[in-house]
Amino acid sequence: MELGLRVHRDRLGRGRAGQRRRELESLFAAQWTDGRVPHIVFNPRVPATRTSPAPTSGAPPTSPTARGRETSGIVQPPVHAPAAWELYRAAPALGLPFLRRLYPLLCAQDDYLFTCRAAGNGLVTIVHPWESGLDNSPAWDAELATVPVPQRQPAGHRRRDLDHVVADERPTGTDYARYVAIADAYRANGYRDALAAHPFVVVDPLFNTLLAAAEEALARIAGTLGLPAEPHLERAAAVRDALLVHCYDPAAGHFRALDRHASRSRSARSPASPRSCSTCPPTSWTRWSRP
Prior knowledge:
Blueprint lengths: L13 H15 L51 H11 L1 H25 L24 H4 L28 H16 L13 E2 L1 H20 L5 H17 L1 E2 L4 E6 L4 E7 L14 H4 L3
Antiparallel strand pairs: 1-3, 2-3, 3-4
């Protein structure tokens, strides 16, 4: 199950807020012991032959698994804390116990990203194009082209997306084989987050911008619960500063992703902007701001 980016307060009635709270808590019930929140939690009542990717592409027995649930091993952008905050605002009386339950889990999610996915420059990495939230975007074509194409399709694999959408509107067979190969390599390495274990490693400005927004939401949640908010605000500001230093191209006026394998910036533009989450302005924003 995936939680989309479309959780807006003005669209949440009291009944729908309750449903969304249950959805979030259901997702975090499958949170891995290392803190990561998987991008798919498989329904045990749905046969594996009807899903793609199938649960066999998920957690091996030796990994920091999802408490007995079948899941994928990759993540999605950390939009969950802002979603939790908006759900609380939709129904504060009912949402306060929900915040108390979810807050430590949301903190563990961000802790995983800041530690296990650290890029070494104050930012975090993604290890699969699907983790970007842009999924099969052409923005990742250059990095994807460096991933070796498997000689044969994995046993039992079938592209079920083509059962619903015409092939011209979906990734090519070669690109999709690379997507599967990246996920399979991660699984084969026990989901260890070491640079050498990944055929695809990118610092995505959009993912990092959403991480800063998540920390700002955690600051609001912490304040509501009577807990210290400042550590979250400091994290958010540090991410934005790092984005501006390492990913912002002042001549072009936009942000670029970083290919961590090649240690270079990419030519493709990112839709990210730290201005979208600026409740505490980054210390270096004025240095990079354009008229």
